Amino acid sequence: MLRALLLYLSQATWARKIVTGWGVAWRVASRFVAGETLNDAVRVVKELNERGFTTTLDHLGEYTTNDEEARSSAKEAIEILARIEGEGLKSGISIKLTQIGLAIDPGLCKSNLESVMAVAVERGIFLRIDMEDSRFTETTLQLFEEMAERFGPEKVGVVIQSYLYRSEQDAAKLMARGARVRLCKGAYKEPPEVAYPRKPDVDAAFDRLTDILIRGSQDSGSPPVSANGRRPPIPAIASHDDERIDYAVWAADQAGLPKVALEFQMLYGIRRDLQDKLLAEGYPVRIYVPFGGEWYPYFTRRLAERPANLWFFVSNLFKK
Ligand code: FDA
């Protein structure tokens, strides 16, 4: 119930206006967001790189409603790429297709994506296409396929959400093409017609998908994370769930997949203990580093994932 309400609020314009007007909201959100500017994010990335983590930078923004904003989001992504190269960061970028126009016009989104991809390839930086709600799954996968075909499957990656019924089929197809896949549970409000409503089913599907990705990686020669940390291996397990991570470690070990051919990914500010532990065990660990002024929907989804975050937020409202 609470999760559904928060996920509804994450897309409600009226709620965004109210919450982003409270200074205290930013204070709590900054636990999950690296800062409002690219400079803030670069500072965080440098610190993470020094500690041995790789990163993926995400300039927050989604569901852009006009062409101009969509084009300017693509330009901003290009600026981030220049900064990654200029500063020698061990980082890729993540991008949401509705940020660059998917909800307005798939043609506009494709041309924006192509211009960002061309620069990412030129600068040797990996681009991950985030997955959004199920209205966009099919088009996102199609656009991913087109980019992978045109620029090479090792230059661009996509995301599979274990809560969707379709994901096992999608993952099998992606593995047949050697695609780089980030596996997550899924963060949006979905109807029972398309997604498992019960958490144990989402978790069980996550482990089955982990198996599919591990086998897929082996079939493609188990490519490792690149030496400069910018290109991930084929399977990227994006979760903070101890059981899912333990399963992935066990399954990869059983299959004989080298540690460098399996990446763990976590969100900035969440389960730092686990991030450190996996890194110390010799796995590549990539931190998703979001930044920018459009933090409201991202922040609300993080509240929805863990009720304790909401209580932390509410208790801060009463602090001076
Ligand atoms: P689960 O929600 O079961 O949480 C397991 C444990 O992790 C909790 O008990 C708690 O300890 C900790 N935890 C989880 N979320 C927390 C939070 N918000 N605050 C504090 N602790 C928390 N989704 C999507 O739909 N499309 C996408 O493209 C992506 N991309 C993405 C990238 C990366 C790197 C990550 C880690 C996640 C995503 N996600 C995503 C989000 C994902 O779908 C999912 O909503 C969250 O990761 C939470 O699920 P967990 O697997 O962590 O498990």
Instruction: Count the E strands.
Output: 8
* Strand order in the sheet with the most strands: 1-2-3-4-5-6-7-8
Oligomer: single chain
Q: Biggest β-sheet, characterized?
A: 8 strands, parallel, barrel
Residue-averaged pLDDT: 94
Query: How much beta, percentage-wise?
Result: 5-15%
> What distance separates the N and C termini?
30 Å
How would you characterize this protein structure?
By secondary structure, the protein is α/β, with parallel strands linked by helices. Helix content is 51%, strand content 13%. The protein is built from 13 helices and eight strands. Strands 1-2-3-4-5-6-7-8 form an eight-stranded parallel β-barrel, surrounded by six helices. Helix 6 packs parallel to helix 7, helix 8 (167-176) packs parallel to helix 9 and helix 9 (199-219) packs parallel to helix 10. The longest helix is centred in the middle third of the chain and has 21 residues, at 199-219. The protein starts with a helix and ends with a helix. The relative contact order is 0.15. Bound molecules: dihydroflavine-adenine dinucleotide (FDA).
Keywords:
single chain, 320 residues, alpha/beta, 8-stranded parallel barrel, 13 helices, 8 strands, 13% strand, binds dihydroflavine-adenine dinucleotide
